[in-house]
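Data availability (excerpt). The following record was deposited with the supplementary files.
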Amino acid sequence: MAGRVGFFDVETGGEMVLVLRRYGNEFQVIRQFGYWDPRYDEPFVVPADPETFLTDLASIPSVFAWLVPGLGSHLPAVLLHDGLVIADGELPTHLGPPVTREEADRILRGAMKELGTPVIRRWLIWTGAELGTVWVTRRHRWWWRVLAALTVTAVVALGSLATLDLFDVWNVLPWMGNRPWWEELLFGAVAAVAVPVVLSAFWARYWRAAAITGIAMAVLLHVTLAVILLSGVYWVLEKLVSWPEGLAPSVAKNLANVPDGAHDAGEPPNTTDVALTFSARPERPAESSESSPS
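Predicted structure:
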């Protein structure tokens, strides 16, 4: 019924039990789960066919794993989103009402809220999904891709110039000027928010995703560069130290190379079953749902 919300176990109707079976670096959801979205009169059930549904869980670039881990309270919502989103010509991978990819993104955000995913993290995950939707589904995709490239380039360029200005290497940005360092840092922080918001106006109905992307990039630019540098150092060292054992600094490659003997008799090679239980959030006073990005 409309207004009902939350995840549930299809088999028992009780709290959700997520059972995953690992196949190399992918996972099969072998126990169906359901989700009630308050805007619909029937639930969404994922997967439609447990025998054929495979997922790589949350597709988070490794350099951002410290901020948005692949596993967490958001996992059921991410798997739900995987089940709702299909490529052109593919058969549905969920049972329930058909939805557009944009609607699937909204459902993702609402589902993460029901799971108790922290606010900033769920908006960052939603932004990643929404950018993917714009990238692959919108008409005149070339325009959106050029706009995305220009937005990213502008934020990175201004962030780099702001860093040089802060250390008095090149005083070129008018909003920072030749001021005490704390004033330059303050004005730089204000610009890190204001510039992406201004640029997001060119994204029309997708301005939220553009603004969040720009602000996140501006704020996390230096942290991300540091993580990339440290990750590169680790990768080289691990490659040198581990090559005699045939290992690589890659979780996916190591999982795919688990020996066939590391599973129970009768199970397919390279498989492992993991069961996770997700309880419903405690009852709370009625509150308005987050607005649609449309």
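Summary of structural features: Residues 260-266, 282-289 have pLDDT under 50 and may be disordered.
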